[in-house]
Amino acid sequence: MKKNMKTFIKIAVLAAAIGWGNDSFAQKKDTLKLDPDSKIKKAAKAVGNKTAETAVKGTSKVTDKTYKDKVGPGGQTIYIDKHAKYYYVNKKGGKVYVTAAQLKNKP
């Protein structure tokens, strides 16, 4: 019985400590509001998109096969995933799936 009581007291103390310490993690309102220049926003978005595109293309080259004889509708490199579906990577780093009819011969 003593062991159960000791365990109960430990749990109660732990719960109380978490409850009291929880206030320190509360979100505080930011008094300084920054409104970055539109050029900075545009540049940051472009860097993020290029990073995503490069990352997805790198993973695609490693994990999926590259279709050597065909290109996408805009001349993009075509990859074939493990389900035999064709796709290319767009400027924002997204995979755009295409049908075999949409593919063009490589020049």
Automatic annotation (TrEMBL):
Source organism per UniProt: Hufsiella ginkgonis
Protein name in UniProt: PBCV-specific basic adaptor domain-containing protein
UniProt entry tagged with the keyword Signal: yes
Origin: domain of life: Bacteria
Signal sequence residues: 1-26
Keyword field: Signal
